[in-house]
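Q: What structure does this chain adopt?
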Amino acid sequence: MKTLYFLLIIMHVLSSCKNKEIDVFEGVPGPNVGDTSIYNANHYRLTRILNFSKSDSEQPYGFVEFAYDAEGNLERESMIDNPDLLAMYKTYTYKNGRMATQKIFDGQVNRPTLSRIISYTYQDDLLSQEDALGADGELQQSTYYVYTNGKLSETYKWTQSLGKHHHYKYAYDSRGNVIREQAYMYNNDLEYTENYTYDVKSRKIKTERFNHSNMLELITIAEYTANNILPSAVIYQDAQGNQTSRRTFELDVAGNQIQTSVGNNTINKRKYYGKLLREEIRYSPQFGFTEFGMTRYEYEKK
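A:
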């Protein structure tokens, strides 16, 4: 009877540990198994990004650290080269719960100075303007956002020397999906048009790209499995519909793309926990698909 009693206690403890939410994600990630839906950006925030030369490197060559204020807003982002060389950093301020300014400090290592300021303006709770200023406060460039019925319909940049440029226009279907993007670079000249087609689940299944003369250039087809919202394959075609390349994606239990391949060659491998990206190993097509870097991501519970 005592044996059964202690066995029940042990099973309860193990079950409690299994269901307990993880407070911090650090170190080498494990596999993404079971129900991990709680692990996403709504419940966790990024604390560090570590960059390694290779997946077997013992120490990162550099990392990015994120600090937050008492309200949970991102307050500072620091780029550091190992062991403790501060290359640059950014600071953020907020007003009424929305980002108000971003300041960028760079230049001399361990002694970065203010180089640029970005201020944000809102209208009806929507971002309407970004102004980029130099350290002296002189306006360098503005980016404008225009909305129609609460959806982004245009965005463009403005500079004193070039006027309006990089002008993008968007159109939507009745379900709120973007069905067309048009890009005008300089002098209001059309650069390209892209048309998008969606399935009944609002997943993008086809992209058609037209050049400045409205001639079809490229077609991209996306294929999906089950109810996943990310594709399992992407096929690229020329204007005649001939396949030029194909990428396939392996998905994990949470629907994340954990491996990208071209033919028998791997471009990247990723590890997640829930929806939190924990690790990515990259391979270079230019150098025979050899490994050329790894990045790890660390999080903490909000």
